[in-house]
Amino acid sequence: MLRGVRVLSGMMSVILASAAIAQNPTASDARALDLASRSMLAMTGGVKIADVTLQAQVTSFTGAQPENATGRFVAKGTSESRIDIALSKGPRAVIRNDTGAFPQGAATDAKGNLVPSALHNCWVTPSWFFPALSYLAQTNDPTLILTYIGPETRNGLSVEHLRILRYLSNQSTRATGWIEKFSATDVYLSSASLLPVAFTFNAHPDGDAGTDTATDIEFADYQIVDGVQMPLHIQRIVERRLVLDVVVNSAVFGSGVSDALFPVQ
Fold first, then answer.
1. Are 160 and 189 in contact (CB under 8 A)?
2. Measured on CA atoms in the order 125, 131, 133, 137, is the torsion positive or negative?
3. Contact at 8 Å (CB) between 121 and 204?
4. How many alpha carbons fall within 13 Å on the CB side of residue 93?
5. CA atoms of 251 and 265, how far apart (whole Å)
6. What is the 8-class DSSP label of residue 101?
7. Is 88 within 8 Å of 72 (Cβ atoms)?
């Protein structure tokens, strides 16, 4: 089922365990569902987006010095995504593919080979860089639980705070807790426009599911592109340190992206 996927030792046996099955999952609340639906309407105007390809200028801060590069960010539906960045040490690719029974991912190593990602790093939304194809678009998915946390202020802006997590039925109590932990994503919508201003979640070392790494995705400079409100400036911040700065140059919708672009095995 998950051939080639590196997971924390014993993770699959935990997730597939049949003992102590959790019952009566928490349902999404009406306020959260309403805000998510209105946010999607603000972004898309009700138009369905099949896929998107973004071309961007990228600054990576993961090395000793900042490096400028070109990048391509592709999402197909809400289940597949691919990021390609042309760094000086070689091209970097990060892939997510949630079309199987469990989410999967892969990333290139120093030699350019695709290496499967640990399962615990594959539960957050694949299209974190494009909110209109994020979990906000899946309010009809019964395995996603949306909760309204309340109004807040974030970076001086009034926002509506939602939390989204994954619940899978017929799992053990322990597995349910793990999946909820690894999938939990906080979503902040502008109170004025309901456009997403940030997603936050915890990433983890592939070999250490117990270590949380706070990750923030910040969205700014929304512009209308072919009728879609989308952020042209995206930042990925890890433990309060900027690691990726993305400025979108162009966006193409509905080009018929092939599933072959998202191999994970």
1. yes
2. positive
3. yes
4. 18
5. 28
6. S
7. no
Who's near 219: CB < 8 A, 6+ residues apart? 131, 195, 196, 197, 198, 231, 233, 234
Which residue's entry shows tokens 């990228």?
Answer: 58
Q: Which residue has the tokens 């099955």?
A: 21
Catalogue all structural domains in the chain, each as residue range(s) with its CATH number: 22-253 (2.50.20.10)
pTM (2 decimals)?
0.90
- Are the C-beta atoms of 90 and 63 separated by less than 8 Å? no
DSSP E strands in 47-194: the ranges are 51-60, 67-76, 80-87, 90-97, 104-108, 114-116, 144-154, 157-166, 185-190
What does the pLDDT profile of the chain (265 residues) look like in tens digits?
A: 333 444 443 444 444 443 333 444 578 999 999 999 999 999 999 999 999 999 999 999 988 899 999 999 999 999 999 999 999 888 999 999 999 988 999 999 888 899 999 999 999 999 999 999 999 999 999 999 999 999 999 999 999 999 999 998 888 888 899 999 999 999 999 999 999 999 999 999 999 999 999 999 999 999 999 999 999 999 999 999 999 999 999 999 999 999 999 999 7
- The dihedral region occupied by 53, where left means phi > 0, alpha psi between -120 and 50, and beta the remainder, is beta
Q: Using an 8 Å Cβ cutoff, are 220 and 195 in contact? A: no
How many angstroms separate the CA atoms of 233 and 264, rounded? Answer: 28
* Residue 113 one-letter amino acid: N
